[in-house]
């Protein structure tokens, strides 16, 4: 998520240079495509017995993100021009970074089941 956000910030800052845009878009693609398989693995590993159903969640979330991003980006472009869409995308990325970091605290279902409740006596 950090690479994606930094790529968008760089694109906003250097968007007037065709060479810089080409390099940044390549980095943006690498960052984005690198997230897909790790996101899928993380969702399935956290789902426990519901892994088969959970496999559809990343694709559904991506579709919601594409639709929402297109709507918000379109509003930004119509109101402030093309660079605003990149700035809004970077802003969304900045908001998503702490959320992404917080999900690192999630543990798979089986790990949570194996842990006794706090304060429980062990015999």
Percent strand equals under 5%
Count the E strands: 0
**Proportion of residues in helical segments:** over 70%
**Nearest-angstrom radius of gyration?**
19 Å
Sheet with most strands? none
Task: Enumerate the spans where pLDDT stays under 50 for 5 or more consecutive residues.
Answer: none
- Look at the structure and give the mean pLDDT: 86
Task: Characterize the overall form.
Answer: elongated
- Tell me the number of helical segments per DSSP (H or I, 4 or more residues long): 6
Task: Provide the number of structural domains.
Answer: 1
State the secondary-structure class.
mainly alpha
Straight-line N-to-C gap: 45 Å
Strand/helix succession: HHHHHH
Describe this structure in words.
It is a single chain. The chain is mainly α. It has one domain (2-105). 80% of the residues lie in helices and 0% in strands. The chain has six helices and no strands. The chain has helices at residues 2-14, 18-47, 51-54, 57-80, 82-102, 109-114. The chain starts with a helix and ends in a 9-residue tail after the last helix. The mean pLDDT is 86. This is MFS transporter. InterPro entries: MFS_trans_sf. It comes from Promicromonospora soli. Keywords: Membrane, Transmembrane, Transmembrane helix.
């Amino acid at each position: 998520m950090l690479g994606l956000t930094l790529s968008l910030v760089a694109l906003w800052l250097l968007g007037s240079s065709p060479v810089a845009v080409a390099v940044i878009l390549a980095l943006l693609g690498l960052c984005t495509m690198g997230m897909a398989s790790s996101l899928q693995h993380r969702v399935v590993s956290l789902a426990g017995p519901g892994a088969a159903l959970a496999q559809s969640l990343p694709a559904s979330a991506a579709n919601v993100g594409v639709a929402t991003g297109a709507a918000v980006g379109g509003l930004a472009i119509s109101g402030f021009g093309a660079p605003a869409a990149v700035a809004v995308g970077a802003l969304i990325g900045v908001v998503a970074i702490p959320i992404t970091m917080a999900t690192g605290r999630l543990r798979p279902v089986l790990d949570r089941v194996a842990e006794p409740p706090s304060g429980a006596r062990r015999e």
